[in-house]
């Protein structure tokens, strides 16, 4: 054993102890953070009239919430604390507290609410496929603030808080409508591919990706000019689209093909094509981009894909009839 | 108003704009399969041409097609019981012995479905045989919120199930000959 000068050893020892304590503290803080912040998946089961809550850390089911019949699309508020579920067949929107989802509140709304996106202060942007409207609803009072005419059979809705826009996919008009979120008026209509259903806005708001069911492609819309920048073939019947938090990757679920294509946003080349379960539909990505979740409608399960490679890492059985999917942080 | 809306929807359906609004109600599923004691290549040969449905489905009178087996190809399926359906091909995977198509123009009085998308696939089965799967995601004839018994979800599921079973059983017979 080599005797080191005392002072140095003492100083090193103290430093080592301090470092160890610091490391332990950081590790504890990190794991506490991980536990508190593990986002949850909220999955609608349209056939069973339920929302199933799944922990993304363990992939275990935390709760099953019984709702009125036919819940279709689900969306989270920007702060992740509240979820909203549309019931197109009975004209209802359910409001769920992410931390106590088993006590939902229900809003009665006109028409056939389908697609939904949530703005600030609980303002809901809801498509009405039967009346060809975008309804703007104050979720606190349940009052309809505005009804904005859009194209025929409006499906999904996406918001861009930077440009203050709502985008609506008009399935039977082969177009999207651009709505001013503040003035609550339609400001433009952009022709896209055939039967646009789902759409997603890039994190910086510079692009809108529109999945066209009938033409089997994605229209890449330049948000500034509102022109089609590109059209990318993805597979048969694309029904779901999501953009990674960095904006670098785009994921598209092709229902007929039973695949998810991962595109490089810069080149718009396909980086990966992954077979998932039968009839994939809604996709959602974690806030950190590490995982992508895909609802496989016919299979009744969820494919978990690696957000970097686009490969499937796991499949979670959930139940027959699952349809919509939202990710919400639980803190 | 409700009656009016239902009536309008019927008009739209007749005009062929069937999928308008079809995504609102709950989609229904049919999954049928059959084991065939013949190698996949032989089974695939019977079903591989999109417009050859008439040769292996006894409920079909004719199935004239255009466009061959390319995506976008179409076929008009005339039913023996009357009525006709127009399908279009979305995806054709020769290597996987599978193709997917959708209903473009329904005929809800003859076949109570407003829209379906469907996949037929031949896979290797037990003992050198095959397994054929035929599945569909479909919407009832009346996509309004108060469908009659002849145009509700169950009527749609029953119609598609009957059509698929008849086809698969005939296919088995033909391929095993």
Automatic annotation (TrEMBL), chain B:
It holds the Pfam family Polyketide_cyc2. Keywords: Signal. Residues 1-22 form the signal peptide. This is MxaD protein. The lineage of its organism: Bacteria, Pseudomonadati, Pseudomonadota, Alphaproteobacteria, Hyphomicrobiales.
């Amino acid at each position: 054993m080599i005797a080191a000068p005392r002072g140095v050893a003492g100083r090193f020892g103290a430093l080592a102890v301090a470092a160890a304590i610091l490391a332990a503290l950081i590790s504890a803080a990190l794991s506490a953070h991980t536990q508190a912040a593990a986002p949850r998946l909220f999955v609608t089961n349209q056939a069973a009239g339920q929302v199933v809550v799944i922990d993304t850390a363990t992939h275990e089911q935390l709760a099953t919430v019984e709702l009125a019949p036919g819940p279709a699309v689900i969306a989270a508020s920007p702060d992740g604390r509240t979820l909203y579920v549309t019931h197109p067949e009975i004209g209802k929107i359910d409001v769920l507290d992410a931390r106590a989802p088993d006590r939902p509140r229900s809003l009665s709304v006109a028409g056939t609410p389908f697609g939904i996106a949530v703005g600030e202060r609980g303002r809901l942007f809801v498509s009405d496929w039967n009346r060809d409207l975008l309804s703007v609803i104050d979720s606190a009072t349940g009052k309809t603030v505005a009804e904005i005419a859009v194209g025929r059979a409006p499906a999904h809705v996406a918001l861009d808080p930077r440009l203050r826009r709502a985008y609506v996919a008009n399935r039977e008009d082969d177009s999207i409508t651009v709505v001013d979120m503040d003035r609550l008026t339609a400001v433009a209509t952009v022709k896209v591919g055939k039967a646009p259903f789902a759409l997603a806005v890039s994190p910086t708001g510079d692009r809108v990706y529109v999945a066209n069911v009938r033409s089997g492609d994605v229209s890449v819309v330049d948000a500034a000019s509102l022109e089609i920048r590109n059209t990318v073939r993805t597979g048969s019947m694309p029904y779901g689209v999501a953009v990674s938090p960095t904006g670098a990757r785009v994921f598209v679920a092709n229902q007929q093909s039973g695949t998810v294509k991962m595109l490089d946003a810069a080149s718009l080349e396909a980086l990966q094509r992954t077979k998932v379960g039968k009839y994939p539909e809604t996709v959602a990505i974690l806030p950190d981009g590490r995982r992508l979740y895909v609802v496989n409608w016919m299979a009744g399960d969820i494919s978990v894909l690696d957000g970097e490679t686009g490969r499937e890492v796991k499949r979670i059985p959930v139940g027959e009839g699952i349809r919509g999917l939202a990710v919400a942080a639980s803190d | 108003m409700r009656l009016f809306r239902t009536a309008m929807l019927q008009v739209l359906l007749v005009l062929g704009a069937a999928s308008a609004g079809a995504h609102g109600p709950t989609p229904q599923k049919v999954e049928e399969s059959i084991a065939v004691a013949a190698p996949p290549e032989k089974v695939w040969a019977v079903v591989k041409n999109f417009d050859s449905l008439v040769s292996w489905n006894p409920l079909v009178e004719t199935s004239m097609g255009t466009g061959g087996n390319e995506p976008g190809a179409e076929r008009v399926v005339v039913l023996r019981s009357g009525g006709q359906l127009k399908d279009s091909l979305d995806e054709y995977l020769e290597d996987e012995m599978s193709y997917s198509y959708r209903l473009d123009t329904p005929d809800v009085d003859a076949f109570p479905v407003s829209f379906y998308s469907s996949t037929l696939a031949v896979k290797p089965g037990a003992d050198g045989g095959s397994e054929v799967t035929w599945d569909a995601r479909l919407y009832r004839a009346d996509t309004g919120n108060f469908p009659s018994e002849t145009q509700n979800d169950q009527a749609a599921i029953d119609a598609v199930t009957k059509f698929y079973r008849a086809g698969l059983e005939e296919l088995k017979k033909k391929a095993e000959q």
